[in-house]
Design brief:
D-Amino Acid Oxidase, Chain A, domain 2; Helicase, Ruva Protein, domain 3; 10-stranded mixed beta sheet; globular
């Protein structure tokens, strides 16, 4: 069994020392995104010994690049996938309950520019309400022209006929992933970032563990496990191919990646506490304009992509598409010069042989399968349903005889995450980030040196120290992209703060803060 690791004691040396002492566990989870972290939390909460290994930083990939929505999926209801929507709506409630410092309800308004749109979409959204039942966040409302303008200032007034308002949620994806990592540690799991799995270990042609390596020291570790879970998102096929090669076979690709691009602009383009949703743009996609942490997110695209870059870039056509469509529905037309940051996420859409490469129609439901060697792979799904996916993974592992939970059911439906305050309401995710992101730990952050020294608005030296000491941060990117969200909000501002943060990392750890690499990344997140 792994030894219990307090979130107070998560510096790098302690983590690696614990890893070196760990010889045999119930489960090794490969991948520190939403899915892998959810699995680690669920398994550890049932009393299983768990090691989670992430090659880069937690949520470095897709899980920090979502549209920041906790939702049932209105478009999936339109596709007739009622079961997926119902599950997601119930999971939405669990997430909002267990992480109120990182997630909150959000009103969405569909403006109508044709007379039939309000009743047509309104009926569908009433069905959405009905599916949510007691988990609903508010009733769908039909809006007149004046009411639509008052709730959605900044919407294009020309030809406006009214609108429909419904409720979903939004969240801070990277910080939610971090809360899951720290919650797993609180439940006695050992979670380690920057420690890629270099090789699967086999005994009698069955997966029996992994070899991994700390990227900073190049120190290698061998961890034996009853069950190994491949939860590497869009990259699951690489490990599946390695496993198939051991058997003298070749594997068929499971994932067809889709690229989602997001642009961030100032709040002046949509000075509202509600999001704008266009259900069908010129090419049939969905367009969002979402208020988030003092800015507005515009997106998203859904473009097939066949390479699997860790830092995918936006196609020029995608940026132009989002700006053009946004200009159709916003009174103030955003241009490339207005974009503060552009970022791209790769969705792990599960292939369907009957679909001819149209990623908008591929399944967002998750898939779990086991190879002949016992390697368990999970992919697909979305952030909202991460917890249900984890439950399904544990159930699958038990069915395959890889785990024995001794009849202990999942407890995560009501397991509050690290930092979740007990008695306060939901965090206001419309306003610029501040101490509320830390929930019940805000006083702890404030107690650290530098609480009164701002590096950027609302972002202090104390927050940097907290990230390094207690939130697994190792590099400038970790802190400015995922512990705070500055790279995603304003790439230029992030670049200006980078040297200061790098100096603090050097003082705290003596390790390479990767400053040059981060400054290069900031340029990639800039459109101009």
């Amino acid at each position: 069994m792994t030894s219990r690791i307090s979130p107070l004691l998560t510096d790098r040396n302690q983590l690696l020392a614990a890893l070196s002492r760990t010889e045999q566990v119930d489960m090794v989870v490969i991948g520190g995104g939403a899915t892998g972290l959810g699995v680690a939390v669920d398994a550890a909460a049932r009393g299983l010994s768990v090691v989670l290994l992430e090659a880069n930083d937690f949520a470095k990939g897709t899980s920090s690049r979502a549209t920041k929505l906790v939702h049932g999926g209105v478009r999936y209801l339109a596709q007739g996938n009622v079961s997926l929507v119902r599950e997601a709506l119930h999971e939405r409630t669990a997430l909002l309950r267990n992480a109120p410092h990182l997630a909150a309800p959000l009103g969405f308004i569909m403006p109508s520019y044709k007379c039939w749109e309000t009743p047509f979409y309104g009926v569908g959204l009433k069905a959405y309400d009905a599916l949510a039942g007691k988990d609903g966040l508010g009733s769908t409302r039909f809006l007149g022209v004046r009411h639509t303008k008052s709730l959605l200032p900044g919407v294009c007034p020309e030809g406006l006929k009214g609108g429909v308002m419904y409720w979903d949620g939004q969240f801070d994806d990277a910080r939610l992933a971090l809360a899951l990592a720290r919650t797993a540690a609180r439940q006695s799991a050992l979670v380690v970032n920057y420690c890629p799995v270099t090789q699967l270990i086999y005994e009698n042609n069955k997966v029996a563990g992994v070899q991994c390596m700390d990227t900073e020291s190049s120190q290698s570790f061998t961890i034996r496990a009853k069950c190994v879970v491949n939860a590497t998102g869009v990259w699951v096929d690489a490990l599946r191919a390695q496993d198939a090669s051991h058997q003298g076979k070749t594997s068929t690709a499971l994932v067809s990646p889709s690229q989602g691009v997001h642009l961030v602009v100032d709040r002046e383009f949509l000075p509202s506490e509600h999001a704008l949703l266009i259900p069908k743009t010129a090419d049939g996609r969905v367009l969002f304009a979402v208020p988030w942490l003092g800015k507005v997110i515009l997106g998203t695209t859904d473009t097939p992509r066949h390479d699997l870059a860790t830092e995918p870039t936006a196609f020029e056509s995608e940026v132009d598409f989002i700006l053009k469509e946004a200009a159709t529905y916003l009174a103030k037309k955003p241009t490339r010069a207005d974009v503060k940051s552009v970022w791209v996420g790769l969705r792990p859409l599960v292939k369907a042989s009957s679909i001819d490469g149209n990623t908008k129609k591929l399944s967002r439901e998750h898939t779990i399968l086991s190879s002949d060697t016992g390697l368990v792979t999970v992919t697909g799904g979305k952030w909202t349903t991460y917890r249900a996916m984890a439950e399904d993974v544990i159930a699958h592992c038990e069915e395959q005889g890889l785990l024995d939970t001794r009849g202990k059911a999942s407890t995560t439906k009501f397991l509050r995450l690290v930092g979740a305050p007990k008695d306060t309401g939901w965090r206001n995710l419309h306003q610029a980030a501040d101490l509320t992101a830390y929930g019940s730990e805000s006083a702890w952050v404030q107690s650290l040196e530098g609480a009164d020294k701002e590096i950027l608005p609302g972002f202090t030296e104390a927050m940097v120290r907290f990230a390094i000491r207690y939130e697994y941060a190792r590099t400038v990117e970790d802190i400015l992209a995922r512990r705070s969200r500055w790279l995603f909000l304003d790439a230029k501002a992030a670049a200006q703060a980078a040297e200061h943060v790098a100096q603090m990392i050097q003082e705290e750890t003596g390790s390479d803060a990767k400053l040059t690499e981060f400054l290069t990344l900031c340029k990639q997140y800039s459109v101009a």
